[in-house]
Structures are given as structure tokens and as C-alpha cells.
Amino acid sequence: xxxxxxxxxxxxxxxxxLSVSTPAFAAKDKIVIGHxxxxxxxxxxxxxxxxxxxxACVDWVNKVRGGVDLGGKKVPLEYIYYDSESKxxxxxxxxxxxxxxxxxxxxxxxxSSGLTLSGAPVAEKYGMLYMDHGGASNKIFRQGFEYxxxxxxxxxxxxxxxxxxxxxxxxxxxxxxxxxxxxxxARMVMxxxxxxxxKLGFDVVFSRTxxxxxxxxxxxxxxxxxxxPDFILGGGHFEDGQLFNRQMADxxxxxxxxxxxxxxxxxxxxxALTSMAEGVMGPSHWxxxxxxxxxxxxxxxxxxxxxxxxEFVDLFKKALGKEVIPDYHAAEAGAAxxxxxxxxxxxxxxxxxxxxxxxxxxxxxxxxxxxxxxDTGLQVGHTMVDVQWQMGKRIIVWPPEAQxxxxxxxxxxxxxxxKGKVAAPR
Length: 426
Prior knowledge:
The protein is an alpha/beta fold. The protein has helices at residues 2-26, 44-63, 88-100, 113-125, 160-169, 184-199, 218-226, 238-250, 267-273, 294-299, 309-320, 328-347, 352-361, 414-418; strands spanning 31-37, 68-70, 73-75, 77-83, 106-108, 130-132, 148-150, 175-181, 203-210, 231-235, 257-261, 281-284, 303-304, 364-366, 369-371, 385-390, 393-398. The strands form five sheets. A five-stranded parallel sheet has the order 4-1-5-6-7, with helices on both faces.
């Protein structure tokens, strides 16, 4: 009798414990984002921007939106980060720590394609959602990973918008020259540009790469000049971008348009080249001044999620405690927060598999622009913005829903620029 009574009491206590613990387990009191940030080392500048962008959007979600709506309950976001020192070995160990010790709900990748790729297998091992905001290489999404999702536009898309813009602006333009640095990133930009140019009916009359660290582009540019292109796309990094422009001027190579990746959008580019940079363009993921808004989202039939651009800038400054304007590194990291929030709400869960599935179905617009991914997690919805130097200022000229001014086309000749002529829309 006593034994059966004891068994009965144990069963009752177990049932009571289960009834108490199950709701507590199911009802989350916070959603935790983990991040092996690049706060020192070679990517420290971009890493600080990403940190500020994430903090800004987490702050907006919590204070303005009231948290993440999971089944009618508003759950706040918490952001945990550690400095990876821009090192691959630190990235992998920190992701392990964030998943196993901190019990995060998702991991945000570090900056750069190389570091993002190094962390992907670890996130994959744990079935952890891995939000890529700073790795543009298409190679990352050709490995078969299931949990990585990209916010930054892929390398192959960098010059697609430029080609669309020229096709619309000048239907008579036919011949394009491609000249890019021989690096993985630039080669992928070139791959995408060449494929898209042919798709649009352009004739690729020149297609060549030049070595990293090149100090003289005269032989390549002389051959390019002989191909007589209507416009030129190319570049790789800041130093070779300057050299490209200077030696085009020296050789008097004129074209209706010149767009260079990674260099031409930087203020230091114009400071170094002054009038020789007039009319030169470059693609960027985001620029302060873009016109993306709830009204623009409505025009193209996309869901909108705040904050507005100005709200984001204010929150970014507050997050870093500095009077500094965010660049695209901050914007794309912040947009990744917004994508996660919408997907978690759509899934009604923080389960990585359910959120990953919801991300695949998600299409929206934010201050960063449009967002959509393909089956591999590659970003296909975001359009690069094209910036052009006009009268010493960076003007956003593409796409139409983001532009702050009209394209100056054709750009002035180098002889005219030497005489003081500036790029101005006709």
C-alpha cells in the first residue's frame, strides 16, 4: 500500500513539474542575436559600422516596434557580440561559443567573404541560422550550405544595375569594355557583368583582367582604347581604381561612361583625382540620401519595415556615440536584423529551420532597399545603387526609386575636364 502510494505521488509530482515547465520553455522572454564582430584587425572600420547598424536596428525594433511579435507576444531582441579580431580561427571558435554557451537564436556573420565562409560550416554543424551581411562572394552560396542567408548583394550583381541604366539611357550604345583586377571578388563582378551585358544585347569588345598590385595599366588600356568601346566597366580596389582613371586621362581614352567598383564611390577618390573624377561612376550597396521609403515600397508592391533612413542615421550615431554618417556596411547589417524579425514573425517561431523557410518566402523593402533570396540563400532582390561624381558631389543616379539626381551622360572628355568642365545632367 505504501509502495503504490509512493509511486502515485511521484507520478503526480512529475505531472505537476511538466505542466509548470512546459509553458515557461515555450514562452521566450528574449531573442538573442550572436555576432563574431570585426572590431579590430584589418576589417575594424567595416566591423564598427556593422556593429552600429545592428545596434541601431535592434534599438528600433525594441523601442519603436515594441519587439518581435511571436504569436501575439512582443519579445525583445538582445545583441551579444565578441571581437573576432578579423581572424578566421577566432570566428569559428566564437560561433561555437555563441551557439553552445550563449544559446543564441541566430548568428550574424563577420565582415568579408573570407571570414563569412570560414564560419559557415560551424553554423551548419549546429543547424544555426547564419545571417550574411558582409560577404558578397557568390562562392559562399555554391557550397550547399542550408542555413546561410545573404543581405548584401552578391558580387555578380555589382554592375548589373549600371548596365540596365545605360541600356535605358542610351539605347544606341552597343560596345562595352570590361577590365577588372585579377582577384576572386573582381572576377565574380566581371562574370556577372559580362553575362548581363550579353543578355541585354551589348557587344563585349574587350574583356581582360590585370594583376593585383599593378603599377602600370598602359599596355592593357592601350589595347582597350583600340577596341573603341562606348562605355567601360572595371576596377578592383581603391589604388588600382585611381591608377585606372589617371592613365585613361594620360592616354586620352574617352567613353560615354566609366564605372569602377570599390574605388569611385569613396570620398577619398575625388580628393585624389579632383576634376579627373568628374562623371565617373561606381556601384554601392547603399548610400546616405537614397529615397527608399514606405511610399516607394507601396509603388512596387512590397511590404515595408522601418526605420526610415533618417531614423536609422540618428540611431546609428547614438549606438556608436559618434557624429558619423553610416555607410553601406552599417546599412546592410541593420537590414539583416529587419529580415530576421519579419521572418521570425512570419514563422511564429525562432526555430532556425522555420525561420530559414520563412526567409525564403520573404520579400520586403527597408531603408536599405529591396530584399529577396533564392533557394541557396543568395540575395537576388537588392539592387545596387550607382553613384556618379557631379560637380564634386556624389549623386545617386540609379535605380530611379533611390536616385537623388539625374545621370550626367555622356561624361565630359578628359580634355574638357582638364579645362574645368564638370559633369552635369543635360
